[in-house]
């Protein structure tokens, strides 16, 4: 596209401003995790690794981290199975409600977390009579984690068309062999990209989690939220936040690389 | 000769559309059989029905002696070469070719040997370790062919396999395909919309129109003796002479077809007189089109129709033809070159639209 010189400069400045607004605060968090001053005075007078040592020894932070990893892994697993099945089901059938079903699957990612949270809490407690626990958190997270897997797999199916599987059947392979030797290898990277995004979504979820977790269950975001305003815990929170920034950048970067461009991978991100 | 494929009363309806309409068809063992027709004429649907990708609305399909109508694609002894080749992109050329043998649990050693053979048949020796994305369109087409041939199916189905290739490569592959077919002796069922391709390769051709076969004949018969206006128009260029024009020029009513290369163009003074063996019609040259090996002249006849006259450019110069533009000429042809399409009734297929139009 050919742009006039003035427009090009304006776009460049605009891009820089946006990136600065996003990333300077994040860098501040990382920097403050080394700030010797307990009240995070600016500019930092002295740097220290003390907070990092303290955080490494924090039982609460470690337990919360482990809980979050478990919840995210399970929610991702559920999303992988159900999301793939949904994408395959909608692809093979041509019933007229197909677009409606597709919309209904994608919708949870757009619903406000607080609505999803309240609705699920109600359903679990009053309708189903299930006590809130990590299990209910996993189910709640899976409702929106499915979307990333479903979107990625569906986009891949659309790009591939159906002839590869027809060819496999034509060459004598039954449906299961075809899935194992042709379908799965073709959607593997889409599955991985969807799974990484799903994991990321679940890992930092706080709103839905608040409504669906039992009183004793503490995921990492909830732990951070509860410790943020305790003066002696603030430095540790900073360290945990710094770790999370790095940890969440990796899956997004991988997901983008795997799907060969951001268009496909990011369609499910919120 | 025994039949490789027998189709009886085969129909496939998509909602209201009759893609295939009550089709009967026998394809002989070892034959190179083409299904020719415009897009939407049902030829590809017939192929997909034989392969098992579509379920017929009604009718039976027999492969050899076996009724396969209700069998899944993987339980039929046919293989398909797809229009887009459908080569598995995550496998090497060899893995692609071995695929059919692998899923049938053929031992590794035999698999390898047969894959090598198949690759040699399509002139791709030594390409086994390449990945599909490293191949050209023509090479991918050959891989698809090898992947199908390696299974030694009773019948090989080819769905416009040359459609994506450029003209020169397509011509080469046409001849090569014919050679390969003769070599392996497998029945080929070839779908194409390119009449020249069908004429070049086939033992027999079925011309499809609106889900039915208009004519089933050898290439020569199809070209020299088209059975309907549709076939005459679809296979090669033809001049249609009918109604009043036929009465005026030929002295009899009816519908007739004459091929452009069978018509001669002479000056008014050199014109022969019409008799029982020669037809003569005066007119004016409206357009002269130079096509390299031939020149086409479009002549508007006084009798009220236009005919195309083709002549080979034996001389370097076509000035003589070009000078005839807007000149009065006489076109002549031998009466026995005329093909009669029967009575003067309008084409039954096209009639409803024509009457309301």
From TrEMBL, chain A:
<dbReference type="InterPro" id="IPR051789">
    <property type="entry name" value="Bact_Polyamine_Transport"/>
</dbReference>
<keyword id="KW-1003">Cell membrane</keyword>
<feature type="domain" description="ABC transmembrane type-1">
    <location>
        <begin position="65"/>
        <end position="255"/>
    </location>
</feature>
<comment type="similarity">
    <text>Belongs to the binding-protein-dependent transport system permease family. CysTW subfamily.</text>
</comment>
<dbReference type="InterPro" id="IPR000515">
    <property type="entry name" value="MetI-like"/>
</dbReference>
<keyword id="KW-0812">Transmembrane</keyword>
<feature type="transmembrane region" description="Helical">
    <location>
        <begin position="234"/>
        <end position="254"/>
    </location>
</feature>
<feature type="transmembrane region" description="Helical">
    <location>
        <begin position="63"/>
        <end position="88"/>
    </location>
</feature>
<dbReference type="GO" id="GO:0055085">
    <property type="term" value="P:transmembrane transport"/>
</dbReference>
<feature type="transmembrane region" description="Helical">
    <location>
        <begin position="9"/>
        <end position="34"/>
    </location>
</feature>
<protein>
    <submittedName>
        <fullName>Putative spermidine/putrescine transport system permease protein</fullName>
    </submittedName>
</protein>
<feature type="transmembrane region" description="Helical">
    <location>
        <begin position="132"/>
        <end position="150"/>
    </location>
</feature>
<keyword id="KW-1133">Transmembrane helix</keyword>
<dbReference type="GO" id="GO:0005886">
    <property type="term" value="C:plasma membrane"/>
</dbReference>
<dbReference type="InterPro" id="IPR035906">
    <property type="entry name" value="MetI-like_sf"/>
</dbReference>
<dbReference type="Pfam" id="PF00528">
    <property type="entry name" value="BPD_transp_1"/>
</dbReference>
<keyword id="KW-0472">Membrane</keyword>
<feature type="transmembrane region" description="Helical">
    <location>
        <begin position="190"/>
        <end position="214"/>
    </location>
</feature>
<keyword id="KW-0813">Transport</keyword>
<feature type="transmembrane region" description="Helical">
    <location>
        <begin position="100"/>
        <end position="120"/>
    </location>
</feature>
TrEMBL record, chain B:
<feature type="domain" description="ABC transporter">
    <location>
        <begin position="5"/>
        <end position="235"/>
    </location>
</feature>
<keyword id="KW-0813">Transport</keyword>
<protein>
    <submittedName>
        <fullName>Putative spermidine/putrescine transport system ATP-binding protein</fullName>
    </submittedName>
</protein>
<dbReference type="InterPro" id="IPR003439">
    <property type="entry name" value="ABC_transporter-like_ATP-bd"/>
</dbReference>
<dbReference type="GO" id="GO:0043190">
    <property type="term" value="C:ATP-binding cassette (ABC) transporter complex"/>
</dbReference>
<dbReference type="InterPro" id="IPR013611">
    <property type="entry name" value="Transp-assoc_OB_typ2"/>
</dbReference>
<dbReference type="InterPro" id="IPR027417">
    <property type="entry name" value="P-loop_NTPase"/>
</dbReference>
<dbReference type="GO" id="GO:0022857">
    <property type="term" value="F:transmembrane transporter activity"/>
</dbReference>
<dbReference type="InterPro" id="IPR050093">
    <property type="entry name" value="ABC_SmlMolc_Importer"/>
</dbReference>
<keyword id="KW-0067">ATP-binding</keyword>
<dbReference type="InterPro" id="IPR008995">
    <property type="entry name" value="Mo/tungstate-bd_C_term_dom"/>
</dbReference>
<dbReference type="InterPro" id="IPR017871">
    <property type="entry name" value="ABC_transporter-like_CS"/>
</dbReference>
<dbReference type="GO" id="GO:0005524">
    <property type="term" value="F:ATP binding"/>
</dbReference>
<dbReference type="Pfam" id="PF00005">
    <property type="entry name" value="ABC_tran"/>
</dbReference>
<dbReference type="Pfam" id="PF08402">
    <property type="entry name" value="TOBE_2"/>
</dbReference>
<dbReference type="GO" id="GO:0016887">
    <property type="term" value="F:ATP hydrolysis activity"/>
</dbReference>
<dbReference type="InterPro" id="IPR003593">
    <property type="entry name" value="AAA+_ATPase"/>
</dbReference>
<keyword id="KW-0547">Nucleotide-binding</keyword>
